[in-house]
Design a protein that fits this description.
extended; 4 domains; 5-stranded parallel sheet; 22 helices; alpha/beta; 49% helix; Arc Repressor Mutant, subunit A; Rossmann fold
Length: 474
């Protein structure tokens, strides 16, 4: 049963006041018949019988016929039925003193139920995105959302021209509604996992040789401890207590560890912020890969979607670059008393292409954004029309052959034991020492391992390193 069928059943069951009365009474009954339904609803037998048939069709009741008489048993063995009855009991018990519409009014419209389910599954979401997902016309969707806000079910937060909606999580009845709307009618059947088939390979985990491993990698393997300490000194507890604009630039050749340094630092800093009970200021570390995000509009969209989860795409909303700057500075940073530590990895690429944008962003933010910029060289600074004050400049050197071997040795956990002889590490470190590029060394090791797999060798041999050098170029 898919979500569409689930919503149809929810709406069918709860849109009728008589049916809600019956469902409420089932909390105290195990068996029920037409006469009891007629008494509960104060309706004639034909209407009572129709209600019973609907409840049986939806799986709430089980029909038993004997001697021309039909008796209905509450289907408490069924998870879907328990969900419905639990929802009615919880919702009805806890809203008696709250000024909100009754259940049957909330569920009177299938479109409204669809919108409530979308709200239940999103932390916050724009009105236009709700309309798009539900395929309900924008004006109709806005009317339902306005109703839900007025009913205390949802809250609206305005970010300039964009309105985001979320559950009114402080209200107990909306938590109940959210929890039950998230449930499907039935849980999918459990399927026993198939036996894992692992081909013959010398790899244990290839991710250890890629950028995916930075979060878990102890920084001592990169010989970056002193630079890591410098960053933490620049953004210490005094910064967390009273953030101010603070700009750092980190330069160094390709493969010198700039990306690993700033990503590991960002991960550590955000963990400190999240775990610090006394840090009441909202500080967000935002990492930007400027090779991927290389225009001002894409940069602003990424920042807004970090600060406001599910913020809609700017082009879809027709939001200009200038408007996005206003939304960030006025409606988020100032209104929420928020601060951003913005890391522009390979930021020299962005500055060369858009030299005026970042200074303009910092000016609009009024000291609420700090920068960490990585760059291969500092030549881009000469192109800036506006001078930026850099509190600290770090320069990372190329790696030596010994350091490269240490880095490679720190990653041999990617392979099964005994697959990487010491001479292979020496060969790769020597080849990579020409450039001092740790990334190149790791790509060689990965390629050599794959060459060994293709030849069905239990070890990486020097010949596999030579093959890798022919494939992976500096």
């Amino acid at each position: 049963m898919d979500d569409s069928d689930a919503l149809t059943r929810w709406q069918l069951l709860l849109c009728d006041g008589d049916r809600v009365k019956i469902l409420r009474s089932l909390d105290f009954l195990d068996y029920i018949n037409v006469e009891v339904i007629a008494e509960i609803t104060n309706r004639d037998l034909d209407l009572a019988r129709a209600q019973l048939e609907i409840l049986a069709e939806c799986g709430i009741l089980k029909k038993h016929s004997s001697g021309g008489q039909s008796t209905y048993k509450v289907n408490r063995e069924d998870q879907w039925a328990r969900n419905v009855l639990g929802f009615i009991s919880f919702f009805e018990t806890d809203i008696h003193s709250l000024d909100i519409p009754p259940v049957e009014t909330l569920f009177a419209s299938k479109d409204r139920v669809t919108i409530m389910k979308i709200l239940a599954e999103a932390e916050r979401i724009s009105g236009s995105e709700i309309s798009r997902r539900s395929q309900i016309p924008p004006q109709a969707a806005t009317e339902h959302l306005t109703y839900l806000v007025g009913a205390g079910i949802a809250r609206a937060v305005h970010y300039g021209p964009v309105t985001m909606y979320r559950w009114a999580i402080e209200a107990i009845h909306t938590r109940a509604l959210e929890n039950y709307l998230k449930l499907r009618i039935r849980s999918p059947p459990e399927v026993a996992p198939a036996d894992e088939v692992r081909p013959n390979t010398i790899f244990r985990n290839k991710d250890i040789l890629t950028d995916k491993y930075w979060t878990f990698w102890i920084s001592k393997h990169l010989h970056l401890e002193q630079y890591h300490r410098m960053l933490h000194k620049d953004f210490d507890l005094s910064y967390l207590d009273a953030p101010t604009s603070h700009n750092i630039i980190i330069s160094g050749p390709r493969g010198s560890g700039k990306t690993a340094l700033v990503r590991k630092f960002g991960y550590d800093l955000q963990s400190i912020i999240d775990d610090d009970f006394f840090c009441t200021t909202w500080i967000e570390y935002i990492y930007i890969d400027c090779q991927q995000i290389n225009t001002p509009l894409r940069l602003m969209e990424h920042i807004l979607q970090i600060m406001v989860p599910n913020f809609p795409p700017l082009d879809r909303e027709g939001i200009t670059l200038e408007t996005s700057l206003t939304i960030l500075s006025e409606h988020i940073l100032k209104r929420e008393n928020a601060y951003i530590l913005l890391c522009l990895d390979d930021g020299d690429l962005f500055f060369k292409k858009e030299p005026a944008f970042i200074p303009n962003l910092l000016r609009k933010a009024e000291s609420r954004i700090s920068l960490i910029v990585t760059a291969r060289s500092l030549s881009f600074l000469d192109q800036l029309n506006v001078s930026l004050h850099w509190h600290h400049r770090m320069t990372l050197p190329s790696y030596s052959q010994k350091q490269l071997r240490d880095i490679l040795a720190g990653r041999i956990a990617a392979f099964v034991e005994g697959a990487i002889p010491g001479e292979v590490l020496d060969l790769i470190a020597e080849a990579a020492a020409v450039s001092g590029d740790a990334g190149y060394a790791l790509r060689l090791l990965l390629e050599a391992g794959e060459a060994a797999d293709l030849s069905e060798s239990p070890q990486v041999q020097p010949a596999h390193v030579l093959q890798a050098k022919n494939v992976i170029k500096l």
